[in-house]
């Protein structure tokens, strides 16, 4: 192993702890796969590789044009039909008759492992039945360092533990169907601005932004959920567009050879993000296994891979054993999931494919427009509700009981009027479309709706049962024009204001309030309606300047619920579902509270002639989201982990059970590596046991959460005061109690020691806090693992 000193850093910084952003040290050669956990398939892949010509091997690692978003050409003489790779993290994006599931953000807000798994499984079924071998998801980077990142909603949460669980459940669900998952984007991909190189006024190539992240922060924050994914057996990982510590993610030997394939023992293949490859030999030797979509964007007829790989092997700059390893990494999951027996690619795909011409895919496609939706709308409706967070509910404003009059306001309430907008015109637009509900956001992580149930439609359908008078104005300009609400008579008993926040790949957000004069709309409605419920649909977190307005009597963060949007919401409003979502991020009081991790951007940078100018130093280290607000003792509007219910819960009887036998050492046992790294890290050392009681009058679900308080490490990044280290979701009838067991693995109790280059359990007491949010601890104790 290379001297860690280069990586760990010797630079004295202005801060009190060591952060070196200067280099990304070389780590060669690329560790070969051993097919761990995939032994039989690995043997099949070895036999397959032994029959390939050099040209065929090069073809297998290089994308080509075809019916899918990414395509690997077939090798007919060996019965290999090629690979079809499709977007994305919440739906098979461009397919007809497919479901649009709740976004990752909503899934995280459910804090429900079972729903996370089911969503992954049902998505997997749809991808497979459309003939896709690989789904380009889930997303764990961006993690959500910056609140403004345009793609945070595609992933789960800025908390690595919650994101790790969500990724693991999603991958397991997807791959249990026989589909390969692709966990993305590796690593440090935390802004859209300058994610790709650009040309300056003088035609100099200005390189992508470099995410400069110190070793401890990489391990404890940004790598954490990738470790879960590798441990869950993910087939592939996509490297990202940005640079890491000065070197492009898709040719960074430290992150790919060193961390991913070495330390984490990843056995599958690394594919590039589309156009994220910037070299041939250098990328191959740094650990990139597959170039997507294949051609160099500026020259559709050439590739950094393809013929260049053949040439590189022939001239000795790439070992053929390395090329064999690339093919083995690609073919082993294919055999493991028995993908030689697989449904055909949907015949409609070529018409829908956004991939570059010319279309030259040699294999017969299946029937067109296969309906893969089945009864998946039931899970979509349930998860949409489970990921809706009740933030305020004065005097039981909700649930509704047959109100006489309802008012509905805002351009997010109604149906879509602009057609299929999500990956088309709205791609890289700042505000998206004006009229229509926001079920999901835009870019490659979106979906093609086969229908949408809007909130207005669902509320009207429900209101008819109660004989409720329903009045509505969806035009935000009219709502905020003096006298604009004059037609609403009588003043409704309860008013609903629907706000939305667009976000899309390729562009970061420029504000954190919902769009379309949202605050004006709330002010307008609350000035005449003293019982106003605000509902947000949002591609990320929002600040809520109106949260304390006394006429705002309830607030629901409905996130991005997918195609059953209105039904999911009505279930919450009318108490069919007792709200049980919890915030997977923190809502601060002010937008400026998020300045600790700004998007790197400025007029100077946009006009620079310095190829290396775009540098983003992650100086906040581990302190993002609640870790930042807690460490600096900043009050917030609604904290991470918070969410109300129509009932109430109590917690009691905290005890700790020791699971590990004998003395526990500070360092993990030296064991042969498994996918996920050192196996000791995954071993359970303790369980935290608590009793949760439903003390209210109605059935509901609670989310008990365990936070650990690890000590500060001298000379290192500040340690967060508390970090989430387990949770569960439990459904309880009124008056019912249940004991909950929350295991703690060695990794959960460790920090990354930059000197030793391994996970270490700190000596002395570790605080254990159990409660219902990051600021609502009900029971506390300590464990001393290592004296
Ligand atoms: C980033 O950190 C490096 C030290 O590692 C420093 O030289 C550089 O000025 C910093 N860049 C910015 C934009 O803060
Ligand atoms: C490939 O080669 C192996 C020997 O390594 C042979 O047993 C096998 O039949 C060949 N497979 C195909 C599909 O040609
Ligand atoms: C930059 O390249 C473009 C396209 O090749 C060309 O039209 C333009 O004149 C060049 N600009 C400069 C400053 O060289
Ligand atoms: C090899 O890569 C270079 C860029 O490094 C490119 O110009 C060339 O066309 C590629 N060759 C082939 C055969 O694709
Ligand atoms: C070998 O081939 C590769 C790929 O075309 C090329 O980039 C490299 O410069 C060549 N090296 C030598 C020593 O010929
Ligand atoms: C090729 O493999 C040999 C033997 O394992 C190794 O010494 C050499 O460094 C490798 N070359 C490259 C370019 O990776
Ligand atoms: C809530 O109810 C209590 C008791 O009926 C009342 O005193 C209080 O004003 C109410 N609060 C609001 C905001 O309506
Ligand atoms: C929305 O209301 C404004 C103000 O009354 C009006 O000018 C505009 O035409 C309306 N938009 C639509 C789409 O009706
Ligand atoms: C980046 O900065 C430029 C110039 O200040 C601004 O016009 C643009 O909106 C910024 N982009 C983002 C995403 O903040
Ligand atoms: C936003 O709403 C306020 C009313 O609260 C109104 O005064 C203002 O004109 C609106 N702004 C725009 C741009 O429509
Ligand atoms: C609350 O609503 C009442 C009407 O019921 C209105 O008179 C009052 O000004 C409103 N308060 C605020 C803060 O908008
Ligand atoms: C709220 O508004 C309703 C209807 O306008 C009115 O009857 C009621 O008195 C108001 N309540 C308060 C506390 O202002």
TrEMBL record:
Molecular-function annotations in GO: beta-glucosidase activity
Annotated signal sequence range: 1-18
Tree of life domain: Eukaryota
All copies of domain Fibronectin type III-like, residue ranges: 702-774
GO CC annotations on file: extracellular region
Substrates-to-products reaction catalysed: Hydrolysis of terminal, non-reducing beta-D-glucosyl residues with release of beta-D-glucose
Keywords: Carbohydrate metabolism, Glycoprotein, Glycosidase, Hydrolase, Polysaccharide degradation, Secreted, Signal
Subcellular location: Secreted
Record-linked Gene3D superfamilies: Glycoside hydrolase family 3 C-terminal domain, Glycoside hydrolase, family 3, N-terminal domain, Immunoglobulins
EC top class named in words: hydrolase
Pathway in which the depicted protein is active: Glycan metabolism; cellulose degradation
Coiled coil: none
Enzyme Commission number: 3.2.1.21
SMART domains the UniProt entry points to: Fn3_like
GO terms, biological process: glucan catabolic process
Functional summary from the UniProt entry: Beta-glucosidases are one of a number of cellulolytic enzymes involved in the degradation of cellulosic biomass. Catalyzes the last step releasing glucose from the inhibitory cellobiose.
Family: Belongs to the glycosyl hydrolase 3 family.
Name of the protein in its database record: Probable beta-glucosidase G
Species of the source: Exophiala viscosa
